[in-house]
Amino acid sequence: MGGVTTWRRRGLHGHGHGQGTWRRRGRGTVTGRLALVLVTLASAAGCLTGPEPEAVLRVMVPNTAGSGYDVTGRTLVVSLREAGITDAEAFNLTGGSGTVALSRLLHERGNDRLVLLMGLGLVGSAQATPEAPGVGDAEPLARLVEEPEALIVPTDSPLDSVETLLAGWEAGEVTTGIGSHVGGPDHLAWREAVRAAGLAPEAGRNARYDGGGALLGALLSGEVDAIMTGLSEYRHALAAGELRVLAVTGAERVPGVDAPTFRELGYAWEFVNWRGLLAPPGLTDGQREGLLDALDALHESETWRAALRENGWRDAYLTGEPFVRFLHEEASRRAADNDRP
């Protein structure tokens, strides 16, 4: 496709042309000679057109359309294309809180044209599902972005502060919603926020929805009174004035969002979600470096920097051994947190 450059690190071998078999119908017949001429011309034409175009890079999103993973995955492929780095596309494969997609990735051994969009949620779901494969069974590529969670209500909600919301939740008058599975970022952020307020996570009513689209519908229809979720999934609804943010979970305020941090409000607590990429196991050094070259180029592009600003993401780019260590540390932190009462 025009305007798309393929990035490959040195050492990555190109794709060879496959050779088919051709059987003559009769020795020395006109049909046989004609077929031979046609095959020869076709082979020559293939050589004249240059090397076979590299296959599209497919980004697998492990949950539903409209979720934080989905927004990140689709922003990633658009940025790769617009920056002229490689052709890419995203597709959703749901199930098992992300572990179905992880299993698919692990069965694509040696395929450097498939990557999995993942993050804190997949680390948590793999830990919470004993029979599921582990994140460590895949090839770590990169951490891409960080994003705080936010406590959000409809614009016309009577809940005007975190304190008011928590008091109503503890009294059984307020229902909160989350758009992730148990162990996912929304669930972890809400549970830790409640603990920071000195309350038990089971003290009030919570409802879980499959992804950000369903969660937004539940909030606007009144099924739930407030939601804990990532900001990027709701930037359009916020811009339209349909929603109001009570507080964000990061260490700093989010530019363009008129809301304090939980720490500013007196809660000694911070929380950020993150997202990154895994590749199938069994890649050659050249295949792995080719993918990392593409991600390096993306990270340095103005296209990606604009995407970070638009979605309120923080650049958290990390590759190689530092990313491997980060994954181990994150898994240990979440395992310890899950053991808390």
Structure notes:
This protein is an alpha/beta fold. It folds into two domains: 57-144 and 275-338, Bordetella uptake gene, domain 1 (D-Maltodextrin-Binding Protein, domain 2, 3-Layer(aba) Sandwich), CATH 3.40.190; 147-248, D-Maltodextrin-Binding Protein, domain 2 (3-Layer(aba) Sandwich). The protein is built from eleven helices and ten strands. Strands 1, 2, 3, 4, 5, 6, 7, 8, 9 and 10 form a ten-stranded mixed β-sheet that branches. Strand 1, helix 2 (68-82) and strand 2 form a beta-alpha-beta unit. Helix 4 (120-128) crosses helix 11 (320-338). Pfam families: TctC.
Radius of gyration: 25 Å
Give the biggest sheet. Answer: 10 strands, mixed
- How many helices in DSSP terms? 11
One letter per element, helices H and strands E, the order comes to HEHEHEHEHEHEHEHEEHHEH
Shape: globular
Q: Which percent range fits the helix content?
A: 25-40%
Which structural class do you get from the secondary structure elements? alpha/beta
- CATH fold annotation of the largest domain: D-Maltodextrin-Binding Protein, domain 2
- Superfamily (CATH H level) name of the largest domain: Bordetella uptake gene, domain 1
List segments where confidence is low: pLDDT < 50 over at least 5 consecutive residues: 1-52
Portion of residues in beta strands equals 15-25%
Number of strands: 10
Distance between the termini: 55 Å
Instruction: Tally the structural domains.
Output: 2
Q: Would you tell me the overall average pLDDT?
A: 84
